[in-house]
């Protein structure tokens, strides 16, 4: 029993499409970080950043991208660098910290960072500190 060539071509195309779709599905599902992995990565990197006195320069570390991904999984995709590092990780408070927050917000503006980062900075300042931060 021989199948017509048209049927063989259609079967070959269907098999090829199924292979491509399954490969795409498996590659996307394996790249997604679980909440448990996010907790582990966030806590490990956060400890390292605290040991570095939570200085802004840690945002240039190779591990910071993974830290940000973990932070956004744990605290929401709208979180930015400032809130992940200073609000959720380092938890600064007090007058000295408030002065530092305001200086960082000013520095963010002068460094040309996106307005969303500056707004995040000011939101943290407003939530943690009294008074206003003039930028």
In a nutshell, what does this entry contain?
By secondary structure, the chain is mainly alpha-helical. The chain has helices at 5-31, 35-51, 64-75, 81-90, 95-110, 115-128. The chain has 2 domains: 34-91, no CATH class; 93-135, no CATH class.
Describe the structure.
The chain is mostly helical and 135 residues long. The protein has two domains: 34-91, no CATH class; 93-135, no CATH class. Helices cover 71% and strands 0% of the residues. It has helices at residues 5-31, 35-51, 64-75, 81-90, 95-110, 115-128. The longest helix is centred in the N-terminal third of the chain and has 27 residues, at 5-31. It starts with a helix and ends in a 7-residue tail after the last helix.
Radius of gyration: 24 Å
- The number of distinct β-strands equals 0
Q: Percentage of helical residues?
A: over 70%
> Helix- and strand-based class?
mainly alpha
Multimeric state? single chain
Weakly predicted, low-confidence segments: none
- The average pLDDT is 84
**How many H/I helical runs?**
6
Number of domains: 2
List keywords for this structure.
about 140 residues, mainly alpha, 2 domains, about 70% helix, elongated
Topology:
Blueprint: H1 5-31, H2 35-51, H3 64-75, H4 81-90, H5 95-110, H6 115-128
Helix pairs in contact: 2-3, 4-6, 5-6
């Amino acid at each position: 029993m021989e199948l017509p060539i048209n049927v063989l071509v259609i079967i070959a195309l269907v098999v090829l499409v199924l292979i491509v779709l399954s490969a795409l599905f498996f590659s996307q599902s394996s790249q997604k970080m679980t909440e448990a992995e996010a907790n582990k990565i966030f806590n490990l990197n956060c400890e390292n950043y605290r040991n570095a006195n939570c200085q802004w320069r840690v945002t240039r570390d190779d591990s910071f991208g993974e830290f940000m991904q973990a932070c956004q999984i744990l605290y929401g995709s709208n979180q930015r660098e400032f809130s992940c590092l200073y609000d959720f990780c380092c938890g600064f408070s007090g007058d000295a910290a408030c002065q530092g927050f305001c200086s960082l917000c000013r520095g963010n503006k002068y460094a040309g960072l996106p307005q969303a980062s500056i707004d995040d900075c000011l939101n943290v300042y407003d939530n943690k500190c009294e008074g206003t931060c003039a930028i």
